[in-house]
Design a protein that fits this description.
The chain has two domains: 9-196, 3-Layer(aba) Sandwich (Rossmann fold), CATH 3.40.50; 200-470, UDP-N-acetylmuramoyl-L-alanine:D-glutamate ligase. The protein is built from 14 helices and 16 strands. The protein has helices spanning 9-21, 26-40, 56-67, 83-90, 125-133, 231-241, 254-259, 281-288, 306-318, 349-356, 362-365, 406-419, 424-446, 456-462, and strands at 48-52, 71-75, 96-97, 109-113, 139-143, 159-163, 183-187, 220-224, 247-251, 266-269, 295-298, 324-327, 343-346, 373-377, 382-386, 391-394. It has a nine-stranded mixed β-sheet, covered by helices on one side. The protein has a seven-stranded parallel β-sheet with strand order 3-2-1-4-5-6-7, with helices on one face. The longest helix is centred in the C-terminal third of the chain and has 23 residues, at 424-446.
Length: 481
């Protein structure tokens, strides 16, 4: 089994959706989860109550009841809120108790299947009401995560059976398990190995537009590049715009800007430089005035002149609060990972070797940074490396995407997603997935003669592909605050 990292509640939903898209039988995965719970109950005193919430965590509880005899089931709601959980409930042919009709015998053990890893905050409503009515002081076995974990209002479990990986809301700021978790057992449920790679589930990370938004609410991105080459920064800007960011500015030296064919969706950001990038003082001011910029992409087409490399170093140092994609020759400006740099570095193999020597050194380089530092070794397979064991491989797509310009498109896509507010880790995963899907879509319509300019519209189409988007975007669990 590939190593797991500590996952946020939202990421669990992403990876579950990836698993489903890969053909995993979600009912079988739920049954496997229930079997792990049953094993943890072996020898436990009775009576045992299984407390089932309205979501998939409650579905785990109903599956447990079907395989572990003699338990009492107490449900907070009349029905489950997902088809998966409702099938589990329908397969249970025993009595379902309610908050108003609790079993007569007090429990010696309760199995907490109320709210799973996708919940956060203090429990409320029917969930809180049931928690308050539990008689006596029974032992608690938590399914995936104790309800209310970390909120100040929670069950205190003697053991927690969590699935596939630890969850971030059971860990304190020092990286230690919260006391209410008890003994932690990490149980595999059968995710396909490729579940951890970028896939359609990562579309759940995308922040959908909301009613009432005005220009600028969905971010402003600045692309800095050009000099010897003028097409690369334009490609990056076009890709960023197709991510749904509101405004994309492109800054390049005057001679390169004059040669470029400017699409209407890009705003030319003037520079004093004529041939190559040497003076970034105006760009620094641009980042710090008004609403500033929410993300930057630095490097496409800028060349490797020493003056340009020094200018990039200054730009990175002077704008520490702006997430960045460092691409192409701008990677030469990095000495290790500069302090204050939040973002994604996108070297191909040779650039990686020139920068840090070996891909094996990346984990130490970004250790302890959470989701804020990511390296993508680009190539036929994109290797994504984040902190704390995070990782993934971008595979598939269209082999024609090895053509010139696709690296600029990837950098721009990630920059656009950073501008929308995604973390570097989320933006890197989703950007890699979208590029692979866009390449396949373009191949189907254009064929092997396609060029990089053809791809941006397909990036936008890639945002509406896959079974995941047939569902509503992720929202806060209605039974938690």
């Amino acid at each position: 089994m590939r190593p797991r990292w500590i996952m946020s509640p939202q990421e669990v939903a992403v990876l579950d959706s990836n698993a489903e898209a890969l053909g995993a039988d979600m009912d079988e995965l739920m049954k496997t989860a229930a079997e792990h719970l049953a094993n943890a109950l072996e020898g436990a005193p009775k009576p045992i109550w299984i407390l089932c919430g309205p979501g998939n965590n409650g579905g785990d509880g109903f599956r447990l009841a079907t395989i572990f005899e003699g338990c009492k089931v107490v449900a907070t709601h009349d029905k489950q809120k997902t088809p998966l959980a409702q099938r589990a409930r329908d397969d249970w042919d025993g009595e379902v108790h309610s908050v108003e009709n609790l079993p007569k015998e007090d429990p010696a053990v309760i199995v907490d299947c109320l709210l799973g890893a996708g919940s956060f905050g203090q429990p409320r409503g029917e969930i809180l009401s049931l928690m308050e009515k539990i008689p006596g002081r029974p032992m608690v076995l938590a399914c995936d995560m104790p309800t209310g974990c970390g909120s100040g209002v929670s069950f205190n479990a003697f053991r927690t059976v969590t699935f596939e990986a630890p969850k971030s809301n059971m860990i304190d700021s020092h990286g230690k398990l919260l006391p209410e978790v008890g003994d932690l057992f990490i149980a595999p449920v059968g995710w396909p190995e490729e579940t951890l790679d970028p896939g359609p589930g990562d579309l759940l990370r995308y922040p959908h537009p909301k009613e009432g938004q005005i220009k600028g609410d969905r971010g402003r991105v600045l692309i800095v590049g050009g000099g010897p080459y003028h097409g690369a920064p334009i490609l990056s800007g076009m890709a960023a715009a197709r991510m749904g960011v509101d405004l994309v500015h492109v800054a390049m030296p005057k001679a390169a800007a004059a040669r470029a064919k400017w699409p209407s969706e890009l705003i030319q950001e003037s520079m004093t430089d004529q041939e190559i990038i040497t003076d970034v003082s105006d760009l620094v001011k641009r980042c710090m005035t008004g609403r500033g910029v929410q993300a930057m992409v630095i490097g496409p087409g800028m060349g490797d002149a020493p003056e340009s490399i020094e200018a990039v170093k200054m730009l990175i140092q002077a704008t520490p609060n702006v997430p960045k994609v460092i691409d192409a020759d701008a990677i030469r400006a990095l000495d290790g990972w500069p302090e204050g740099l939040v973002g994604v570095v996108t070297p191909h193999q040779k650039e990686l070797e020139n920068w840090i020597g070996n891909i094996d050194t990346v984990p130490d380089l970004i250790a302890g940074s959470g989701e804020s530092r990511v390296v993508i070794r680009t190539g036929a397979e994109d290797i994504i490396i984040g902190a704390g064991g995070r990782g993934g491989i971008g595979m598939g797509g269209n082999p024609r995407m090895s053509m010139g310009g696709t690296g600029d498109l990837l950098a721009g896509s990630i920059g656009g997603l950073l501008g929308l507010g995604l973390s570097p880790w989320s933006a890197a995963r989703l950007g890699v997935h979208l590029m692979r899907v866009a390449g396949k879509l373009a191949e189907n319509e254009i064929g092997p003669g396609m060029v990089a300019d053809d791809i941006p519209p397909y990036l936008s189409r890639a945002l509406i592909t896959g079974p995941v988007l047939l569902r509503q975007p992720m929202q806060e669990d209605p039974s938690s605050s």
